[in-house]
Amino acid sequence: MAWRARTTSGTGESPASHRAFTVVELVVAITVVAILTGLAVPAIDSVQKERLAREPVNRLLLLAREVRGRAMAEDRPYQIVFDGQGYRASRFLRPYAGLEEVETIRLEMAEMAEREEMIEASQARGIQIAPVAPPDPKEELVREGLKYFQEYAYPPEVRVSVRAWNDLEWIPLSGAETKRWIFQPSGMCEPLRFRVEADTSFFEVEFHPLTGDVKSERSWVE
Fold first, then answer.
1. Is the CB of residue 77 less than 8 Å from the CB of residue 220?
2. Is the pTM of this model over 0.70?
């Protein structure tokens, strides 16, 4: 008769029982991870939706800071023009202009770029350009300001409204409707409220006239 040895642990359990217990632990751990993952995915999705919905507001805040800084540095007014498609930042040139001023700035920038390309091409062929006096730093800032043009297009299915200090109600921007936000060389700007609405989100911010930063905010995201 052959004897078969049986090994037991210090607790009197066989290795097979240890293996079974480890498998149970593994199943429980996987179940817990799956539950936590199921809870985390909606939260991550909500954060992503909020980030996308808030993007027009964040981009406007950054643009307002940049425009305000340029207005103070150049001692020239700047503006942000809103319409139903997006907003655009540039020098403030004409008090009563609208979208046609944006197109004029685009054309002027294209002409300046073309002239600069012609000068560079002439210099590359060895054609001497008459020397000019070094530009005044202030005038150089003004010249660079004329080349400044930034624009942002709203995401699809977004409704935008603005309300200035003299508006009795919110002005929805659609079609050819425009609204201008002007920044003075002193650093002050017109008080402005900006609202972005979609089917599952709502953001409304009020900008401080002295700093151009957000003064107050209301929002919700489903």
1. no
2. no
